[in-house]
């Protein structure tokens, strides 16, 4: 009886979640496979025509295969900046949480400021120009790192606080201090939050749109979100191609997430603090 | 419940300093050098341009040249016609979205760490909206919320409720955008909560199991208090995010109809779009002050909170 | 300290890899002529279908005639986001050799004297109609050549509905409203509103400028000098009142608050709505999918109070300019001279149906032009046109579209809307540092 009720509750949850979260997705898919006239209606009508291949080819070929270059650029930017972000932010968050004082108060304030203040576009361009990094991937990567640092540090700091200090002290008695203490003892314990930071900041950086638009102009430097502009303009939009593009740039990260889901869960559990 | 009073300290705030004797050893364990890479990148690429921008808040700036005008921009921004509507909307939006994200994120987090069948599938489903670009979300929901052919109104009609022009109607536009924001953002909150719940040592649950506590007891006395780092992160991130939010508002309503769903950030964005760069920077400085006044005490309060198991 | 070194090494490796993969991507102003005399020009255009198709027709035709010059087209978003990109690239010295941008007041905000090549007196301008030059000039110096055609801003109407209901093109606002009554009685939406794309709500105000000028000939000059306002000038405030009246009489389609521009054009072409206050340039992009938009949709200027003074407000074509940072000015000038010639107009006509007359000497509207363009040509032939206010005054408030949505949705009374707009304009004039504000 109880098992039955449980099954009922589970199915209800499942159906509800599916409807709320997947109906919009169904709409995107449906629009992506319509012809242009019908897509303009933006409704749930069943496609009268199925130009799936034509739409797909049109999107991939648009502007001399810019989408493929955009994939490469976005992937490089995302992977490199997330790697730097995790290392830099976790290290800094560790000192910030463990060593109170004037320096950390200032750092804490700067972390909040980073969350609050939007990046100043034009001065950032001047600065990157001065460093010779404007319109280069390294410049874009460093910019993404600095724009997402606050977010990552905030998460790391909150979770480092949950790690008992006794651990540090024990490690110190074993002669472990500073960098070694952090990377050998603390960092492995941060696995659940590290995975969260990786997930969330990859999504944010992969989907970033305004910063690449200004800091990385030019067709050869395109990133995936900027390709949406190929099909959407101020006066008219090719909705079917726009949604095909949206689907194409959303599905790879989704597949990655589904594929790694098991590993992600395993990683999170393995990182749990044992007592 | 033998462990009632020995829960770990989980507030992220600074710890009361230890005695003078151990300070030197402590400093050696936590060298400032660990700050260095983050500080260099953040300082050079974020702080320097920001400081430059703050100077331009005092100028009339066309990008080609700038004239120093003192505090004129601040005066002009404060005289902006719809600023008070925008201020009210900003608070409403931030409180509503962050509140819902905390509650729903926690519930989904608990659900998705329980022994649910299809847990993996549901996790992907809930996380999916965060992967979709804001533009796509905006267009999709604008369509679903359309008055005549939108699915939301058609579904409401089935149960006998008369829908309305959700985004075109001044009284529901902002609320509708806020709910879409929650739809898009709750996956993030859930992921953070999953990490928080996963970080709770299993011994605590075992202790409850030994004491014979039920699921509610377990949630109330273990999961809720011990996932505090997650709660803290979700509140701060989504509240500050909500105060600053404009991208979804911009794609769905452009602050309209008229000015009824404008927030401070969307008003600032409009000045920027119009090419009033000094004015928009002044707006950003003011927004920074407002958010700081709200967020710093909040951060302090939440960070200091001790766990009361 | 082994661990930390390893981590730092990994970070460095990531950076280096990234640096290597990004080599050789320099673009921007491009480099000078290559050894074999061939030149590559970069051409930045906005991403609207009309512009990209026009740009492609122009560059293809030009490259066929000049094989030693290659043109690479790059796109940017349109609207105010696009304005900011153009400003950012000009001010950071990163503009492409030639670029497509609005004429009129928006050009004034680009500091042309500092950022563009002065073409005054240059043979490049030989093919340009003289009365176009003021909209690409600042302080008497001209900087661009017209790309594309004149556009009418007024009422696009469905001729099939007019035929069926035996209606006449209205010469006064009262006649227009009477037509709307008849159309509504026939069960058709009289006026299409698409306020989701808020810019479309401005047409009743901006497209009314012919009538403003007819009533107050010195309006543009006095307005720029801060001597006259929208609120308190009955002829100028009329646009706001029309907008409110159309809403109050229930002439708008259901869901006008969330309808988009595409949907509006589609409704009009399919005969689900009779009138749409719009630019004639909204039509060519949809002709491929809605062929009847070419024949069934006509154009008339927004009617004013007086049938004897009836005319249309027009938008001048955008222009192509040369960035001062270009290293290929000679090749760029060659390209601009080509754009301002009848062969270029023919190439464009073959690719994009013109929305009105060209501004190039000797370029004619083709026989099979779309109906709206022919209707506009008739106004031009009669001399019954006036350029929109933004082509004769640098003053234009950025919030007009939000204000017109509010007025057009009945949220704000028209007089209050006009007053709000005056305040908005004042802020803009101050930010531009105009004299007298």
From TrEMBL, chain A:
<keyword id="KW-1003">Cell membrane</keyword>
<dbReference type="Pfam" id="PF00528">
    <property type="entry name" value="BPD_transp_1"/>
</dbReference>
<feature type="transmembrane region" description="Helical">
    <location>
        <begin position="108"/>
        <end position="128"/>
    </location>
</feature>
<dbReference type="GO" id="GO:0005886">
    <property type="term" value="C:plasma membrane"/>
</dbReference>
<feature type="domain" description="ABC transmembrane type-1">
    <location>
        <begin position="71"/>
        <end position="260"/>
    </location>
</feature>
<keyword id="KW-0472">Membrane</keyword>
<dbReference type="GO" id="GO:0055085">
    <property type="term" value="P:transmembrane transport"/>
</dbReference>
<keyword id="KW-0813">Transport</keyword>
<protein>
    <submittedName>
        <fullName>Carbohydrate ABC transporter membrane protein 2 (CUT1 family)</fullName>
    </submittedName>
</protein>
<feature type="transmembrane region" description="Helical">
    <location>
        <begin position="76"/>
        <end position="96"/>
    </location>
</feature>
<keyword id="KW-1133">Transmembrane helix</keyword>
<feature type="transmembrane region" description="Helical">
    <location>
        <begin position="181"/>
        <end position="206"/>
    </location>
</feature>
<feature type="transmembrane region" description="Helical">
    <location>
        <begin position="12"/>
        <end position="33"/>
    </location>
</feature>
<dbReference type="InterPro" id="IPR035906">
    <property type="entry name" value="MetI-like_sf"/>
</dbReference>
<feature type="transmembrane region" description="Helical">
    <location>
        <begin position="239"/>
        <end position="260"/>
    </location>
</feature>
TrEMBL record, chain B:
<feature type="region of interest" description="Disordered">
    <location>
        <begin position="1"/>
        <end position="23"/>
    </location>
</feature>
<feature type="transmembrane region" description="Helical">
    <location>
        <begin position="125"/>
        <end position="145"/>
    </location>
</feature>
<feature type="transmembrane region" description="Helical">
    <location>
        <begin position="32"/>
        <end position="58"/>
    </location>
</feature>
<protein>
    <submittedName>
        <fullName>Carbohydrate ABC transporter membrane protein 1 (CUT1 family)</fullName>
    </submittedName>
</protein>
<feature type="domain" description="ABC transmembrane type-1">
    <location>
        <begin position="87"/>
        <end position="298"/>
    </location>
</feature>
<feature type="transmembrane region" description="Helical">
    <location>
        <begin position="272"/>
        <end position="296"/>
    </location>
</feature>
<feature type="transmembrane region" description="Helical">
    <location>
        <begin position="91"/>
        <end position="113"/>
    </location>
</feature>
<feature type="transmembrane region" description="Helical">
    <location>
        <begin position="230"/>
        <end position="252"/>
    </location>
</feature>
<keyword id="KW-0472">Membrane</keyword>
<keyword id="KW-1133">Transmembrane helix</keyword>
<keyword id="KW-1003">Cell membrane</keyword>
<dbReference type="GO" id="GO:0005886">
    <property type="term" value="C:plasma membrane"/>
</dbReference>
<dbReference type="Pfam" id="PF00528">
    <property type="entry name" value="BPD_transp_1"/>
</dbReference>
<dbReference type="InterPro" id="IPR051393">
    <property type="entry name" value="ABC_transporter_permease"/>
</dbReference>
<dbReference type="GO" id="GO:0055085">
    <property type="term" value="P:transmembrane transport"/>
</dbReference>
From TrEMBL, chain C:
<dbReference type="Pfam" id="PF01547">
    <property type="entry name" value="SBP_bac_1"/>
</dbReference>
<dbReference type="InterPro" id="IPR006059">
    <property type="entry name" value="SBP"/>
</dbReference>
<protein>
    <submittedName>
        <fullName>Carbohydrate ABC transporter substrate-binding protein (CUT1 family)</fullName>
    </submittedName>
</protein>
<feature type="signal peptide">
    <location>
        <begin position="1"/>
        <end position="21"/>
    </location>
</feature>
<dbReference type="InterPro" id="IPR050490">
    <property type="entry name" value="Bact_solute-bd_prot1"/>
</dbReference>
<keyword id="KW-0732">Signal</keyword>
């Amino acid at each position: 009886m109880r098992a039955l009720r449980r099954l009922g509750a589970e199915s209800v949850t499942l159906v509800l979640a599916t409807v709320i979260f997947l109906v919009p997705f169904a709409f995107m898919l449906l629009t992506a496979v319509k012809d242009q006239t019908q897509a303009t209606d933006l409704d749930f009508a069943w496609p009268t025509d199925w130009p799936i291949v034509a739409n797909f080819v049109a999107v991939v070929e648009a502007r001399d295969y810019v989408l493929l270059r955009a994939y490469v650029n976005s992937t490089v930017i995302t992977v490199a900046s997330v790697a730097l972000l995790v290392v830099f932010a976790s290290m800094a968050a560790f000192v910030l949480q463990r060593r109170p004082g004037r320096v950390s108060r200032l750092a804490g304030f700067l972390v909040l400021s980073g969350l609050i203040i939007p990046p100043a576009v034009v001065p950032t361009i001047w600065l990157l120009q001065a460093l010779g990094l404007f319109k280069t991937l390294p410049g874009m990567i460093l910019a993404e790192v600095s724009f997402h640092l606050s977010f990552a540090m905030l998460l790391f700091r909150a979770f480092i606080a949950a790690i008992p200090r006794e651990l540090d002290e024990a490690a110190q008695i074993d002669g472990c201090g500073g960098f070694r203490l952090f990377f050998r003892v603390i960092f492995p314990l941060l696995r659940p939050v590290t995975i969260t930071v990786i997930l969330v900041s990859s999504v944010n950086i992969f989907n970033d749109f305004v910063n690449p638009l200004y800091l990385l102009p030019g067709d050869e430097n395109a990133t995936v979100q900027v390709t949406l502009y190929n099909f959407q303009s101020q006066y008219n939009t090719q909705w079917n191609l726009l949604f095909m593009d949206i689907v194409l740039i959303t599905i790879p990260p989704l597949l990655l997430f589904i594929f790694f889901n098991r590993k992600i869960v395993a990683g999170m559990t393995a990182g749990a603090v044992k007592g | 419940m033998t462990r009632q009073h020995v829960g770990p300290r989980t507030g992220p705030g600074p710890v009361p300093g230890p005695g003078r004797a151990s300070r030197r050893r402590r400093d050696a364990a936590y060298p400032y050098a660990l700050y260095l890479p983050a500080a260099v990148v953040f300082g050079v690429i974020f702080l320097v341009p920001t400081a430059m921008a703050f100077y331009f808040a005092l100028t009339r700036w066309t990008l080609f040249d700038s004239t120093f005008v003192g505090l004129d921009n601040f005066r002009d921004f404060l005289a902006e016609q719809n600023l008070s509507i925008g201020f009210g909307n900003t608070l409403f939006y931030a409180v509503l979205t962050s509140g819902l994200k905390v509650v729903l994120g926690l519930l989904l987090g608990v659900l998705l760490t329980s022994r649910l069948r299809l847990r993996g599938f549901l996790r992907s489903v809930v996380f999916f909206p965060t992967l979709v670009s804001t533009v796509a979300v905006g267009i999709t929901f604008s369509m679903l919320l359309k008055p005549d052919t939108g699915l939301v109104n058609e579904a409401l009609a089935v149960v006998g409720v008369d829908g309305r022009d959700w985004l075109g109607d001044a009284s529901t536009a902002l609320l509708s955008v806020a709910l879409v924001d929650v739809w898009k953002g709750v996956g993030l909150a859930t992921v953070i909560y999953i990490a928080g719940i996963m970080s709770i040592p299993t011994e605590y649950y075992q202790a409850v199991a030994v004491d014979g506590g039920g699921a509610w007891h377990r949630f109330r006395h273990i999961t809720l208090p011990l996932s505090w780092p997650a709660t803290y992160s979700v509140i701060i991130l989504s509240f500050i995010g909500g105060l600053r939010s404009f991208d979804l508002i911009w794609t769905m309503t452009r602050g309209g109809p008229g000015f009824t769903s404008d927030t401070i950030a969307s008003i600032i964005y409009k000045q920027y779009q119009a090419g009033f760069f000094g004015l928009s920077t002044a707006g950003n400085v003011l927004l920074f002050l407002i958010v700081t006044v709200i967020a710093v005490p909040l951060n302090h309060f939440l960070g200091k909170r001790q766990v009361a198991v | 300290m082994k661990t930390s070194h390893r981590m730092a090494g990994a970070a460095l490796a990531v950076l280096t890899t990234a640096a290597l993969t990004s080599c050789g991507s320099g673009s921007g102003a491009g480099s000078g002529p290559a050894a074999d005399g061939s030149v590559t020009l970069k051409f930045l255009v906005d991403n609207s279908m009309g512009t990209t198709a026009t740009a492609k027709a122009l560059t293809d035709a030009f490259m066929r005639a000049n094989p030693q010059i290659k043109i690479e087209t790059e796109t940017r978003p349109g609207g105010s986001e696009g304005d900011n990109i153009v400003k950012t690239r000009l001010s950071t010295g990163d503009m492409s050799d030639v670029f497509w941008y609005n004429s009129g007041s928006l050009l004034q905000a680009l500091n042309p004297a500092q950022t563009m090549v002065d073409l005054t007196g240059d043979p490049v301008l030989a093919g340009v109609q003289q009365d176009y030059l003021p909209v690409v000039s600042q302080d008497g110096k001209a900087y661009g050549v017209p790309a594309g055609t004149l556009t009418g801003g007024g009422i696009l109407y469905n001729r099939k509905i007019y035929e069926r209901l035996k209606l006449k093109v209205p010469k006064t606002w009262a006649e227009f409203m009477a037509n709307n009554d008849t159309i509504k009685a026939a069960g058709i939406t009289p006026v299409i509103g698409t306020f989701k794309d808020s810019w479309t709500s401005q047409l009743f105000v901006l497209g009314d400028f012919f009538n403003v000028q007819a009533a107050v000939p010195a309006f543009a000059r006095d307005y720029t000098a801060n001597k006259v306002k929208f609120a308190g000038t009955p002829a100028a405030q009329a646009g706001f009142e029309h907008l409110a009246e159309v809403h109050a009489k229930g002439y708008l389609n259901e869901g006008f608050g969330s309808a988009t521009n595409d949907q509006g054009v589609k409704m009009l072409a399919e005969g689900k709505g009779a009138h749409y206050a719009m630019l004639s340039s909204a039509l060519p992009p949809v002709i491929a999918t809605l062929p009847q938009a070419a024949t069934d949709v006509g154009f008339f200027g927004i009617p004013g109070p007086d049938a004897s003074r009836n005319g249309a407000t027009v938008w001048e074509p955008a222009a192509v300019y040369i960035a001062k940072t270009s290293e290929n000015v000679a090749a760029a000038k060659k390209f601009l001279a080509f754009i301002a010639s009848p062969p270029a107009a023919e190439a464009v006509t073959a690719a994009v149906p013109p929305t009105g007359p060209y501004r190039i000497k000797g370029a004619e509207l083709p026989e099979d032009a779309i109906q709206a363009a022919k209707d506009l040509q008739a106004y031009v032939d009669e001399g019954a046109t006036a350029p929109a206010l933004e082509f004769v005054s640098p003053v234009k408030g950025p919030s007009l579209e939000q204000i017109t949505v509010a007025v057009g949705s009945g949220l704000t009374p028209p007089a209050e809307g006009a007053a709000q707009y005056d305040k908005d304009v004042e802020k803009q004039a101050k930010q531009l540092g105009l004299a007298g504000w």
